[in-house]
Inverse folding.
């Protein structure tokens, strides 16, 4: 009777580990964090790309990001509903003072991003959004 218990335990442990790895990977792939041009530029500077190489690398990365966005499109409603549910559960944990602080933080972040995008557009630089590069 000991052996079936060990097998069941190892099976469950394996399932948890595989689920964790897949969940972590999916989270990384599905995140909507805007592309950071500063990070890309820093990488280009570190490895010493020429302007021609930078342009080709930008095109390559932008095309890959567009393809990823297209591949994720059918999953987007499901992902959005999972995120929305998690936000509702998170807000339910907070006190009214914490909710007010969170709302202020969200407003400040949205304002900062809008200001940064308008500054980038005014300078003729690309937006910080993956979706904007797909529309070009």
């Amino acid at each position: 009777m000991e052996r079936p218990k060990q097998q069941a335990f190892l099976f469950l442990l394996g399932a948890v580990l595989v689920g964790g790895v897949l969940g972590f990977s999916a989270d990384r792939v599905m995140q909507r964090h805007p592309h950071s041009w500063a990070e890309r530029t820093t990488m280009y500077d570190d490895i010493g790309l020429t302007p021609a190489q930078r342009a080709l690398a930008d095109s390559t990365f932008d095309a890959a990001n567009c393809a990823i966005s297209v591949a994720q499109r059918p999953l987007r409603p499901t992902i959005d509903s999972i995120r929305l549910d998690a936000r509702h559960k998170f807000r339910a944990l907070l006190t009214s003072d914490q909710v007010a602080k969170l709302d202020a933080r969200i407003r400040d972040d949205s304002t900062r991003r809008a200001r940064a995008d308008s500054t980038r557009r005014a300078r003729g630089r690309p937006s910080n959004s993956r979706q904007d590069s797909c529309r070009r």
